[in-house]
Amino acid sequence: MKILVVGGGGREHTLVWKIAQSPKVGKIFAAPGNAGTAAIADNLNLRATDMEGLGKAATEKSVDLVVVGPEAPLASGVVDFLDKLGIPVFGPSKSATQIESSKVFARNLMEKYGIPCPKGATFSSYSKAREYLREQCLPVVIKADGLAAGKGVIIAGSLPEAERALSDIMEARIFGSAGDRVMIDEYISGREVSLIAFTDGRRVLPMVPACDYKKVGDGDHGPNTGGMGSYSPPGFFSTQMTQKVTKDILLPTVRAMAKEGLPYKGVLYAGLMIVDGEPMVLEFNARFGDPETQVILPLLKTDLVDILMAVVQDNLDRLKIDWSSQACVGVIMASGGYPGSYRTGFPIEGISRVDKDVLVFHAGTRLGSDGVVYTDGGRVLTVVGMGQGMAEAREKVYRNIPNICFEDCYYRKDIALREIDEIESKPSEGMKRQK
Ligand code: GLY
To answer: Which of 71, 290, 415 maximizes ligand 1 atoms within 8 Å of its Cβ, making it the mutation to test the pocket?
Structure first.
């Protein structure tokens, strides 16, 4: 088979890496890819949203399947376009992608079908939103309706902060038309987790759960980013909870989409908050998470291509997915200054010096004509380690990171630390028995 992966981030390098393990696959293309995908696929010089270019390339190269990674091409209708050309494509249609591209759409759907989510209200008028804001308890959550590269959700701890966020979105229009409407939600606190599932529009097969770290700094300080690290599986999220979320959230959502005339196929990502043992949906995404994918796919034992094809061919019910019982930790190496301004173009050294069982997924990297890999973005690499437990996986990652160096490199030092602290603070089985 020939497979084209659309996108050029860490998630897409991970997809290409996993697809390359399938004995069914002879050739992989990435559009545009990065220096990591270049080592195992042919990078095509195409933007992920260049529908015509993607259609032409897929046709000319007789591609058997296109896998769309990021939200922007999904929201702009790449899947519908390729589908019309008769090219098999993995991902939801443009109208089904609204579940991610419009938070108001997702909220209305959840309210209509009784899917648990925080209470909130929607506004298209700045003055009405401001009036409402003044009556709310703090902290409060302000959300731009549309896609905002992970920056459209602001948790405001004070009224001036909340008013500034509202004004930035609706008056200064920092997210453009994505801020035409805002949602003002109650703040809920609990344990945050991502449960991502494959779905063919009828059946839902969840992946292993994962947690990501959105803030740039240790201890969850500083501004939001696209994600600074992740781990899987979180100990607080049991198999029973996966079953509950599948039954009460993922399946009802897929069925609701079908009832609305928007059949949903591909990957459904539920960003959840577990409050007193009850899951609530903070957001839906229409794609694999980044950086969750970097710690989920290394744990997948089933051939990913079989799963992707089963989704495309509507026969996910014939499939059972097997997962490793290992733990996985991923740490992002970023360009200093990210998510603000940062410099790029620095040579990256030492990737080949990491241990054989440590994975390095590229994101913002570029292969120079001199054969050297250069930094080319805010998030540069995800270094991933697996182990029998979280402590082993984490130790592997942090022991290997210093082998890799580039100017201005920055990474968080506390990824998965809370998981280990929790494991260590629990009495061991032996001690429990002595009680
Ligand atoms: N990790 C958050 C996201 O993929 O949107």
So the answer is: 290
CATH code, 364: 3.90.600.10
Sequence-ordered alpha helix ranges (H) in 124-238: 126-133, 159-170
Report the percent of the chain where pLDDT is more than 70. Answer: 98
Is the residue at 431 inside a domain? no
* Mean local confidence (pLDDT), 132-157: 94
Domains in the chain: how many in total? Answer: 4
Query: Does the C-beta of 292 come closer than 6 Å to ligand 1?
Result: yes
Pocket lining: 136 vs ligand 1, CB cutoff 6 Å: no
Indicate the pLDDT class of residue 427, thresholds 50, 70 and 90: low
Backbone phi and psi for residue 121, each to the nearest 5 degrees, phi listed first: -140, 155
Q: Is the CB of 212 under 6 A from ligand 1?
A: yes
* Å from CA of 291 to ligand 1 middle: 7
Q: Last residue of a domain, which of 318, 342, 367?
A: 318
pLDDT digits (tens, 9 = 90+) for 211-251: 999 999 999 999 889 999 999 999 999 999 999 999 999 99
Global model pTM greater than 0.90: yes
Q: Is the CB of 377 under 6 A from ligand 1?
A: no
**Beta-strand relationship, 89-90 and 153-156:** unpaired
pLDDT confidence of residue 433:
37
- The Cα 151–Cα 181 span in angstroms is 15
Residues 57 and 145 in one domain: no
Assign 273 to helix, strand or coil.
Answer: strand
**Which CATH number covers residue 314?**
3.30.470.20
**Same domain for 175 and 159?**
yes
Structural domain span for residue 310: 191-318
290 lines ligand 1 (CB under 6 A): yes
